[in-house]
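Help needed: design a sequence for this.
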């Protein structure tokens, strides 16, 4: 189930035009040998907004499973 949630999260985040590098970081994927990633500064405000949306999504799922 967790992997399904991660897949849903990444699909929605990608549709919001979150960069591939930000998505990798949000999913805690390794970025070894990715030279370009070292040159990108992640926009903290965008990540915060995405984090809030993710938390709300988790709350809704938790409420749904309690019923």
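Sure. Designed sequence:
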């Amino acid at each position: 189930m967790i992997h399904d949630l991660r897949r849903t999260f990444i699909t929605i985040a990608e549709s919001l035009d979150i960069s591939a590098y930000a998505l990798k970081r949000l999913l805690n994927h390794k970025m070894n040998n990715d030279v370009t990633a070292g040159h990108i500064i992640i926009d903290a405000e965008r990540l915060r907004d995405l984090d809030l949306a993710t938390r709300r999504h988790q709350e809704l799922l938790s409420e749904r499973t309690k019923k």
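Helices lie at 2-15, 20-26, 44-66.
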